[in-house]
Amino acid sequence: MRNWLFLVFIFLTAEGFAQNSISGRIVNSENGEPLPYSKISFGKEQVLTNIDGSFRINYTQDSLKLQISYVGFRSKTLKVSPTVEYVLVELQPVVEELSAVTLSSGENPANNIIRKAIINKNKNDPQKALEHFSYKTYTKLLIDNLSEGMRLEADTSNLGMETIINTGRAYLSEKVSRNTYSRGKGLKEIVLGLETAGFEEPVYEVLSLESNPLSLYQNDYKLFGTDYAAPLANDALKNYHFTILDTTAAQRPAYVIYFAPRREKVVAGLEGVLYLDTLSYAIQQAKAQLLGAIKLEVNHYYNYYPEEDLWFPKKQVTNIRPGSGGKDISVFGGVISVGSLQRGSDVLSSMLGGTATNPNDYLTSTATNYEIHFEEDVSGKTNAASIEVLPEAGERKIGFWEENRQQIYSRRDRNTAAFVDSIIDAQNIERKLEVQKAVQNGYYPLEFWDVDLGNLLKYNRYEGLRIGLGGKTNKHFSERFSLNGYGAYGFKDEKFKYSLGTEVYLNKSSETIIGLSYTNEIREFGTFEYLKKVNDFSLLQPRYSNITYFYNYENLRVGLEHRIIPTLQAKLAVSKSHISMNNSFDYNYIHNGKHYSEYDLAEATLSFLWQPFSRFLHTPEEYQIVEDGFPRFTAQVSRAFKGIAGGDFTFTRLGLIADHQIRRLDQSRTEFILEGNYAFGDLPLTHTFHASPNNANKSAILNRFAVAGNTSFEIMYFNEFFSDRQAMLNIRHQLRPFYFTRGIQPELVLVSRFAIGDFKNKNLHKGLDFKTMDKGFSEVGIELNKIFAGFGITTAYRYGAYHLPRFEDNFSLKFSFQLPL
Question: What is the CATH number of the domain that holds 691?
Answer without folding.
Answer: 2.40.160
